[in-house]
Amino acid sequence: MAENREVDQLSGIETTGHEWxxxxxxxxxxxxxxxxxxxxxxVWSIGYWIVMPAWPLVTDYTxxxxxxxxxxxxAEQLAARQAAQQVYTDRIAGASLDEIRGDPELxxxxxxxxxxxxxxxxxxxxxxxxxxxxxxxxxxxxxxIWGGTLDDIQQTINFGIRSDHEDTRLxxxxxxxxxxxxxxxxxxxxxxxxxxxxxxxEDQAAVARGQEIYVEQxxxxxxxxxxxxxxxxxxxxxxxxxxxxxxxETVIESVAYSRRGVMPPWVDRLSxxxxxQLAVYVHTLGGGE
Length: 289
Prior knowledge:
This protein has 11 helices and 2 strands, in the order ββααααααααααα. The protein has 289 residues and is mostly helical. A hairpin with a 2-residue loop joins strand 1 (15-20) and strand 2.
């Protein structure tokens, strides 16, 4: 690297004396307008530090002369929106579910609010489109374990399923193998009979044996025809809708070890108006009765 300065013959500008691989660096200063713009930005930043919130402190931050707060503006906007919605939420809180359904204005507001509440509180289990997944019911069909009327849905949302609320919907299926109510062979036979209720059995001898076990052990909840009982939360075994899966291995597992899915209660987490909006929204997804 050379330190001798010289004038570049092509541009006529003095070099800095630096050279790398035969390339000389020109001593070409920035344009004056650029330099002054840079100085202006420095002055602007100092003014910004004084006027606006800028410097973080240990537990707070400098508020600035103007005391501007984006968080405060958002809080004010939310408060204004809530105040505007209060008229509708108060009406919903004081109306019955049927009255909400019968009022086009309230229904539109309830559906919008219910959709939002569902996305925040329910979609994690039931899916964003309410189609459910293994262990989480599909809310779009007309198969309801505990009933699909507006009142049924509201009760389920309020108190949950097998939750810790005293008014929860509660009914447990025995774990027939674990509880030593049936042998492994009995479990396999009754599973085969259950499969026959939807026309998918393959071993007719097992079906015959399983039917006797079913009548003795299962019919009290699922009924003799397998149509289930919503008062007890016993699913219909004759259709093609299965909460945990309807293949032979999964049915055997359900009979042997039981299923005890839990839905939390929302009565203490959501306002009465929000629960009603959710019930109305879920009811309109396609399977409401």
